[in-house]
Structures are given as C-alpha cells and as structure tokens.
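Workshop exercise sheet. Pairs work together: one partner reads the sequence aloud, the other fills in the structure field after running the prediction. Swap roles for the next sheet.
Pair: D.N. / O.F.
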Amino acid sequence: MALVVVGTPIGHLGDLSPRGVEALKNADVVACEDTRVTRKLLQTHGIDVPVSPYHAHSPPAVLQRLADRALAGDDVALVSDAGMPTLSDPGRELVATVRSRGGAVTVVPGPSALTTALAACGLPTEPHLFLGFLPRQGKRRRQQIEWLAQLPVTGVLFESAQRLPKTLGELADRLGERPAAVARELTKRFEEVVVAPLPELAGHFLEPPKGEIVLVVGPGHSSPSEPGDELDESAWVAEAARGLALGMAPSQLAKDLANRSGSPRKKAYDWVMQAQRGDD
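Structure field:
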C-alpha cells in the first residue's frame, strides 16, 4: 500500500529488473507518461494491469487522484517512458505530495541514462552535477552555460537531438577545448558514444542525429595558486559561495579549495562554512 517508483529500461526492454517486474505485476494502477510506451513494456513482460496517464501537462486533479489512491491503500506504480522517474520528469511532484500527506514511497532502482552515460564515456565521474535540460533560450540559458563553464566538476545534461548542434556550438564557444561526450541511443541497437573536445563534437554533429541524447562535459581544470598569487580570505569565501551556488557538496568543495589555495583542508572547510552562513 504505497507509491512505488519503478526504474524502467532506457532502451533495451530486457533491462527491467525482476523486482521491477514484480512491482508492476502487483500494482493496482501504473502511472505513466505515455500509455503506448508503457503498455509495450508491460506486454513484453506479460503484465496486465491498468495504466493511467500522468505527465508534465496533466492537470493537478490527476496528481491528487493518484495520491489519493496511494494513500487509500492501492499500490500505485510510477514509471517514466525511460529510466528513473523524477529525473527531468514530473514524477517528483507526485512523490512529494504523497510524502507530505504521510504516505509511504518505495523505489525499485533501475536503469538511468545519467549513470549509463557516465559509465560509458570514461570522463571523471566524481564529483558530477546533473543539470537536466538547458533552458531553450534567453538569459537563463546563457546563465547556465556560464555556470557550466565555471564548474570544477563533470556536468551531465539531457538534450534533444534537434537542439544538439546548437548546444554543442554554444558550449564550444564558451568552454573551448573542454573534453566532452555525446551518448546517443544508449542500450539500443545503434548506441553511439563519441568522446572528444567540444569543438570536435560540434563539428561532428553539424546535423541533428537520431535518438535520445545525454551530453557529458568534463570538469574545468583548476591549478593550485603559485606562491605570491594567493587570494585573500574574503576572496576564498566568495569562491566557496560560488561553489555552493553551483550545487557542490561542502566536503568536496572544501577539498577543491584546499587544492587550489594550498591551504589545509580545515581552513578551506572554514571558508565553506562562512559562505553558508553568509559571513562577509
């Protein structure tokens, strides 16, 4: 009697786990983005349960109805068209609603394009930051690209095939020779992972490819300060504040600041704590 979040295949239908099959068989209803996609998955595994559309354009009443069923004792399974629900996916709101009303939420882990792309491309994986889809245009898009340019961590983005050439061109212009990877059609017949500096990727994908895209951008390289070039305390606190704004974990941020400044880790962690408190 719960909301059960079930990770589904990102391409190869055989990647649905045995536990995922069991959870879907036992569900009273499966909430899904596209009923056609989900019915195909269910039929492949011999599962016959009702499905209910739930996607980004569903009215609030649909979310409330699914939450009510989970709270009333039904097993409501939540799936996306591919991968783990809630990642660039409206399922997060349903999870938050059920939890806010005291309901139980369980997760059946499964495939994720995010981790699959990271594992396949050979770029640094620790730490990494998932950015989802870039805004399509305007100030927010430019701002996020600027954030990515400053990241001392690997960035992972989802992108549509149609917009990929434009995105690669903009990233190459701002980030230069940063190593990156385009992972396309993961786990499917025509899977392709192309790893190269951003300008080469932009030249390779001048036309939109086919399929689902994950874009992995390697970290910017920070070198320790040379003697005599040290920043003062307030500058390092400002650096810490910028790292926190970019979503870095305090422990990893302190390690990065210590490496760049040549200071003890404890000192760098003090800078992070000051930034969190908003000290001048």
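Discussion prompt: The first helix runs from residue 18 to 26. What would you look at next?
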